[in-house]
Design brief:
alpha/beta, 18 strands, elongated
């Protein structure tokens, strides 16, 4: 099948590779322009751009699909376009240009968690099940009819990075199956049903730990914002980034934000118990063992909300 593929981050790469391995004619790979990465801000191609180069596929780097990009893509005569986390809007007339339109791989069970951060929001909300959906792209946000979905149980210790990597792999096969169904005329899409929730893009404040919440909610938030924007708190007005946290066993009774030394880390009180911090990063320093950090503190230390 003649395809256009649009995607940018690591989570989009498995689908690109799966479609290529299935023998489809990928006429163009669309991705975001190179971006500055690391402390030296080196201009770096996106993961999808690097994968496309490796596969010998043509690449169009565009921050937005304006008139020039639209003209180039329409001229390709694609039968179908596939998008996975491209990071830009697809508007008319490009939306209707391929014979079968555009399909999108979204990492949630639609209509739950429509929007930019479905994996992260599902974890922050304490969901214990999520999934992936392949749907027909329409002008309204993540509202198109769904071709197929898969369900995925969320592991108790999964971070956003872990869960996204798992869904990217299983979702790649889901997309490949849908594309085959569209090609042979057996695919059918159905309207979305159920409660709609919005997965807004994460801001830095989403990572701020609220110690008066329950221990379960504190850990859910930590997992949902790991690795980005990262969970954090404050110590004497200075930011403390939390790299690793876990449920606490045999913790002393602590008020929200109150600290106590533990065998394998530092206990922190929450609204209904404690959690255990095992790896933290003080402002201006590298990540370190939480117990080592705590031993270096002076006086009565309490974490801010």
């Amino acid at each position: 099948m003649r395809l256009i593929f649009a995607g940018t981050p690591d989570a989009a790469v498995p689908t690109l590779r799966a479609l290529h391995a299935a023998g489809h004619d990928i006429r163009m790979v669309v991705t975001r322009p190179d971006a500055p990465i690391g402390r030296r801000r080196v201009m770096t191609p996106s993961p999808v751009a690097r994968a496309a180069d490796e596969l010998g596929l043509p690449v169009l780097k565009a921050a937005r699909l304006g008139d020039e990009a639209t003209e180039e893509l329409v001229a390709l005569g694609a039968e179908l376009a596939v998008v996975v986390a491209y990071g830009g809007l697809v508007r008319e007339p490009l939306l209707s240009a391929p014979d079968h339109g555009w399909i999108n791989l979204h990492f949630s069970l639609l209509p739950r968690w429509r929007g930019a951060a479905p994996v992260q929001r599902a974890l922050i909300a304490g969901d214990r099940e999520t999934g992936a959906a392949v749907f027909r792209l329409v002008p309204e946000l993540d509202a198109g009819d769904v071709y197929a979905q898969l369900r995925h149980e969320i592991a108790a210790d999964a971070t956003a990075a872990d869960l996204l990597a798992e869904l990217a792999e299983s979702g790649a096969q889901l997309v490949t199956d849908v594309v085959e169904g569209i090609a042979d005329g057996t695919a059918a899409a159905t309207a979305q049903h159920g409660e709609q929730t919005h997965a807004a893009k994460l801001a830095l404040d989403d990572g701020r730990v609220r110690w008066d919440e329950t221990a379960a909610h504190v850990l859910d938030r930590h997992r949902g914002v790991t690795p980005e924007p990262g969970s954090h708190t404050t110590v004497a007005g200075e930011r403390l980034k939390i790299h690793e946290a876990a449920p606490a066993a045999d913790a002393p009774e602590l008020a929200p934000g109150e600290l106590a030394a533990g065998k394998d880390g530092v206990f922190v009180g929450t609204g209904d118990g404690a959690v255990l911090l095992t790896r933290v990063q003080p402002a201006g320093k590298g990540a370190m063992n939480a117990a080592d950090w705590f031993r270096g503190q002076r006086g009565d230390v309490r974490l801010g909300s």
